[in-house]
Write a structure and sequence with these properties.
This protein has two domains: 93 residues, Winged helix-like DNA-binding domain superfamily/Winged helix DNA-binding domain (Arc Repressor Mutant, subunit A, Orthogonal Bundle); 143 residues, Rossmann fold, CATH 3.40.50. It is 54% helix and 10% strand. It contains eleven helices and five strands, in the order ααααααβαβαβαββαα. A five-stranded parallel beta sheet has the order 2-1-3-4-5. α9 links the parallel β3 and β4. α7 packs parallel to α11. The two termini are 49 Å apart.
């Protein structure tokens, strides 16, 4: 909610006095905590009774409760802005660190996707979008590519997979137990297998010939949702590498 909406709800009809009080508070909201009702009335060129009526129109018992609620509102907005600013700064810092990903790892994955007969790509939950993005990107480049967002479906690929195919799995945590259960067999038969994760200590790397660890583990672990946009950024880097050949 914006400050003007807090001070003047859409369902409230304002008088001329109300509008004067509203304009004074809107201009210097933080100052309201430091002044008396008499001072506010004077600054708004109205009366103490008018200020009280204004506060009651907003649903408060009087000026004292209004001041308390306004203070809480301003504190909430301050915390919201700080949190979002901090989140965005951390996100941009992680995104900028992607330039430090070893070029040969991107080249190796790009070459595998281009030279394979078929590409099989998995991403579960929030990791599903970048997996689908990679599959669609390769399809646009006329490479037969399959995508799924669960390991049960992936287990049905076993009879289709050939030695020259590429297999790519996106996993934020790198701790997915279903990899061993459902796809360890096809992974053992292929040379072009890739795990893309944020976890440098993943134990799943033993099932893959290649493991690409993206920067930003701490950010990924503290994010409210899996940071699929960072995976998507990496996918864009890979596709861009292929198209720049």
């Amino acid at each position: 909610m914006k400050l003007n909406e807090f001070l003047k709800p859409n369902n409230v009809e304002f008088s001329k006095s109300d509008k004067k009080i509203y304009e004074v508070i809107l201009k210097h909201p933080a100052h309201v905590q430091l002044i008396t009702i008499q001072k506010l009335a004077t600054d708004a060129q109205t009366s103490v009774a008018s200020v009280q009526r204004y506060c009651k129109k907003l649903g408060y018992t009087g000026f004292k409760e209004f001041k308390f609620q306004l203070k809480n509102y301003l504190l909430q907005q301050l915390n919201f802005d700080k949190n979002n600013s901090s989140y965005l700064s951390n996100y941009l810092k992680v995104a900028n660190s992607f330039k430090n990903i070893e070029e040969d790892k991107i080249s190796n994955l790009a070459e595998a996707l281009v030279s394979s007969n078929h590409n099989y790509i998995i991403g579960v939950y929030y990791s599903s979008m970048p997996a689908k993005q990679l599959a669609m990107g390769m399809q646009d480049l006329n490479k037969v590519s399959f995508y799924t967002d669960n390991y049960v479906n992936a287990s049905h690929w076993v009879g289709l997979i050939e030695e020259e195919d590429a297999f790519v799995v996106f996993s934020v945590s790198g701790n997915d137990p279903y990899i061993k259960k459902y796809i360890s067999e096809p992974l053992s038969k292929l040379s072009k297998t890739y795990l893309i994760t944020f976890n440098p200590d993943t134990k799943l790397s033993k099932y893959f010939k290649n493991c690409i660890v993206l920067p930003g583990k701490a950010f990924a672990n503290s994010s409210a949702i899996d940071p699929q946009s960072l995976f998507s950024l990496f996918v864009e880097m890979v596709i861009n590498h292929i198209t720049s050949y």
